[in-house]
Amino acid sequence: MATNTAARRQRILVRALYTGVLVVLARTVYLIITTTAGPTMNTDYQSSWDAERDEQVVKYYSSIFEDFISDGFLTVDSRTLVVGADSQQYIAALRETGIIHSKAIKKNGRLPFQNNTFDLQFSAHTGLDCSSNPGELSSELSRTLKPEGYLIIHMESKDSYSLHSLLELFDSFKLIRSREVPIQDWSIPWREVVLKKQNGILRRRRNLAGSCSVPAYKKEIIQNAEPLIAEEPLKPWNSLKRNLKNIKYLPSMADISFKTRYIYIDVGARNYGSSIGGWFKKLYPKQNKPFKIFAIESDRRFHQEYKSKKKITLLPYAAWVRNESLFFEINRQPNSQHEDKGRGMGRVQSAQTSTSFLGDLNKIQGFDFAKWVKNSFTEKDFVVLKMDVEGTEFDLIQKMIETGAICLIDEMFLKCHYNRWERCCKGERSSKYHKEYNECMELFSSLREKGVLVHQWW
Ligand SMILES: *[C@@H]1O[C@H](CO)[C@@H](O)[C@H](O)[C@H]1NC(C)=O
Ligand SMILES: *[C@@H]1O[C@H](CO)[C@@H](O)[C@H](O)[C@H]1NC(C)=O
């Protein structure tokens, strides 16, 4: 994946340099055709192309490095590291610019350099931007750069979300500038970000308890999201599901590359096919990232199936606001032995309030979901949450807001349970839930106001 991206980026650069190459190449081919006709023709053609391309790459990067010098980021004495695919060409370009102490690397993983080695690091567009493990690469770059040293990154995306993620990855760096730089004749510029390593102390640590800040990049994403359905649907069993095609997924609006981990949490996962297999795996745009999946499901009937799904972590508990035993209500239709495809049953009640409840009750373990989120993930992770918890969402979300756990959620799919119109019986509302549609709307709008990209789940 990452290698493919790198290869594509190189092709883009080649196309950008193409205009210059074409003239020389046409001349070379012409010369070969007129002077030789032997079997070596193909190799000549190829090596001449390569040499010409390399020369253009060196020329391009020499001009980039000269800019760094005139902007005061680089001097001829700087110990310099370049990350990206064309390592030989970067070194040649640096030498041409007069910088002798230079190294170049292509690969991810641990960098074979001591702490605080370099004065300047440059990540070309085939470097960090194409890395399959930006979390590791960023901490290695950070480790090997001297305090007060500069890190300059070329990247393709220009959305605010990806810039913010990048700054989160380099959280002991100060943003010096972000601008667009042209690549020769290519019409789409890269973004060039200049960061400076701060002396030891981490700059900002956010206010996770209470309220999250709602920075401009979050507002921008939410403004572009699909509108909420303001009117209560008369046929919720149709309209909410149909709304799926209107959903503007975060990864369709922004680049999610600069994250350490990719997480999908399915609260109220039920059977595998119901949302993990049936929706997330198939439809959620993942930008080729490897997502780690957590299925939170307290109903024992669904547990067996997850035993064979080695890549999914099952938490066989009910998401709740604290660690305590709960009673789990299995809502059977009065005249039916089975539950309808695993839908619409299982409402949790805390032990104290359920004493008078008449029904099919099972004792289950509830856990503090908000605390778990806060203990397990950070702002460097990309976290997608689906929640379908039979009315408990009002308590869970309240707790997530109070504790700041909500700030760690990048994108949320929420089924809000209210006294919806029944499919079976015209003019009748479901008696199972007491909230009304407008209370659901308030919940959705308040989440969006808090900067959470929330969508209506069906
Ligand atoms: C190098 O830096 C890393 C992380 O910044 C630190 O954990 C490690 O102890 C340092 N090593 C030395 C030899 O100072
Ligand atoms: C209670 O919560 C803690 C984390 O806060 C967790 O480690 C522990 O396993 C939980 N206990 C139960 C019984 O779920």
Structural summary, described in words:
The protein is an alpha/beta fold and 458 residues long. The chain has two domains: 196 residues, Rossmann fold (3-Layer(aba) Sandwich), CATH 3.40.50; 230 residues, Rossmann fold (3-Layer(aba) Sandwich). Helix content is 35%, strand content 22%. It contains 13 helices and 16 strands. The strands form three sheets. A six-stranded mixed beta sheet has the order 2-1-3-4-6-5. It has a six-stranded parallel beta sheet with strand order 9-8-7-14-15-16, sandwiched between helices. Strands 10-13-11-12 form a four-stranded mixed beta sheet. Strand 15, helix 13 and strand 16 form a beta-alpha-beta unit. It binds 2-acetamido-2-deoxy-beta-D-glucopyranose (2 copies).
Global morphology: elongated
What level of helicity do the residues show? Answer: 25-40%
Bound molecules: 2-acetamido-2-deoxy-beta-D-glucopyranose
* Overall tally of structural domains: 2
Structural class: alpha/beta
Instruction: Work out the radius of gyration.
Output: 28 Å
Distance between the termini: 33 Å
Question: How are the SSEs ordered, and which strands pair?
Answer:
Blueprint: H1 2-35, H2 41-70, E1 80-83, H3 87-96, E2 102-105, E3 118-123, H4 134-144, E4 145-155, H5 160-169, E5 173-183, E6 186-197, H6 216-223, H7 236-242, H8 250-253, E7 262-267, H9 273-283, E8 291-296, H10 303-307, E9 312-315, E10 318-320, E11 324-329, E12 347-350, E13 361-368, H11 369-376, E14 382-387, H12 393-403, E15 411-414, H13 437-449, E16 453-456
Parallel strand pairs: 1-2, 1-3, 3-4, 7-8, 7-14, 8-9, 10-13, 14-15, 15-16
Antiparallel strand pairs: 4-6, 5-6, 11-12, 11-13
The structure holds 2-acetamido-2-deoxy-beta-D-glucopyranose (2 copies).
One 2-acetamido-2-deoxy-beta-D-glucopyranose is lined by residues 323, 365, 367-368, 371.
